[in-house]
Amino acid sequence: MEKKYKKKVLVVGAGLGGATIARILSENNLKVQVIDQRNHIAGNIFDLVNKHNERIHKYGPHLLHCRKDSEALTFLSRFTKWVKYEHRVRALLENGITTPLPVNKSTLEEVFKKSFQNENQTKEFLESIRNKKLIPKNTDELFESSVGEELSNIFFRPYTKKMWGIDPKELAISVGSRLPVRTSNDDRYFNDEFQALPKNGYTEMVKNMLDHKNIEINLNTPFIKGMEENYFHSFLSIPIDEYFNFKFGNLPYRSIIFEQRLEKGNDQEVPVINFTDNSIYTRKTQWNLLPNSYNFKGQFKTITYEKPCSMEINPGEYYYPVNTNDSKKIFLNYENLAKKDNSITFIGRTGLFKYIDMIPAVQIHINLSKKFLKKINL
Asked: Cys-Cys crosslink for 156: which of 101, 143, 149, 252, Cβ 3.0 to 4.6 Å?
């Protein structure tokens, strides 16, 4: 490789994190080369419109939500207009009916065949069924202490086990804490003040982020170790354990296989339905129900079913870092090793071994960019 690359910064991964770093550095007069082993930009938020005018998220539904004053939102808003969208999910029960998720007042009434006059009654009932004696040390205990044994068995334990491939008792509390429990009838999946989808999709948004004279993009280009030595600095959205030849062992991940089906008939009640049972699927998504799918055509709707699996079954497709006490320790060893090399920075889900929502992901990578620019006095 020519010596001139020493004047460039390498960004491995054209997903949201890589695109954020590339844009910020390019606007500070740095030449940036972005590479990605896939044949498209946008990483796991890649979406496309099919012949039926359905906007499909290739790697599962991605929902954006945050505070209105978020620095990350202000940054992204430079590259897209937004369509308001408040996400709703329902869980399919054994009797064939669906109920709101996260658990709320309606969920409790439907499951326990009760009626609550107000939130106070709902809170009192929830207090009576949850395990107040537990001081949670893992995800399973968090479930039981929050909603009690019966709701844990219906909504959380089977789903979590098939999602993560291990017993919820082995998962860190942070995994289970992502889903709130409500005592109102609020059936929105998130309660953030800003909830929206990019008007023309995530791929278009990332395309605009990468559209700068100082950014060069090369797709179908896998990272090969040693490549980083030819650049001034490298931001690596790659598995950190793989980079260091698994010196401290493998970091565990779960992957997902997406099955697309064409189905006729009534629409789903909401875009996403969760399966609470012991089946192989965790959820299904009906894409034409999203507001940035315009003018749906045809009788058959695309429904995507998600089937979690091991990395052995779906190699190279990293989705969910499995956060346990053991994996935290392994990652810490790799993180400490990475800090000794000033010419590289690990980014993204696999570099940081972190499951990150989109707005926090952008904020993390804004902060990494600022830190880097400060270090080189720009």
From this structure: 143
Separation CA 183–CA 46 (nearest Å) = 35
The Cα 176–Cα 138 span in angstroms is 8
Question: E-strand spans in the chain?
Answer: 8-12, 31-35, 47-49, 55-57, 64-66, 82-84, 89-92, 98-101, 194-198, 215-218, 233-236, 253-263, 272-275, 283-286, 301-310, 320-321, 344-346
Predicted pLDDT at 5: 59
**What pLDDT score was predicted for residue 297?**
87
The amino acid at residue 135 is I
pLDDT at 210: 98
Is residue 79 within 8 A of residue 205, CB to CB? The reply is yes
Q: 123-137 burial string, b = 16+ CB within 10 Å, else e?
A: eebbeeebeeeeebe
pTM: 0.94
| Residue type present at position 12 | V
Exposed/middle/buried for 320, CB within 10 Å: 0-12, 13-18, 19+? middle
Question: Tokens in use for 278?
Answer: 């012991």
What's the CA gap between 210 and 2, in Å, rounded? 24
Per the listing, tokens 């909830």 go with 195
Q: Indicate the pairing of strand 253-263 with strand 272-275.
A: unpaired
Cα–Cα nearest to 214, from 344, 80, 17, 22:
22
Measured distance CA(6)–CA(82) in Å, rounded:
38
Name the stretches of the chain with pLDDT < 50. Answer: 1-4
pLDDT, tens only, 259-304: 999 999 999 999 999 998 889 999 999 999 999 998 898 889 999 9
DSSP symbols for 318-334: --EE---HHHHHHHHHH
Amino acid letter, 89: V
DSSP string across 240-259: HHHHTTTTT-PPPEEEEEEE
Quote the percentage of the chain above a pLDDT of 90: 91
Closest CA to 158 of 173, 149, 168: 168
Which letter does DSSP use for residue 341 in this model?
-
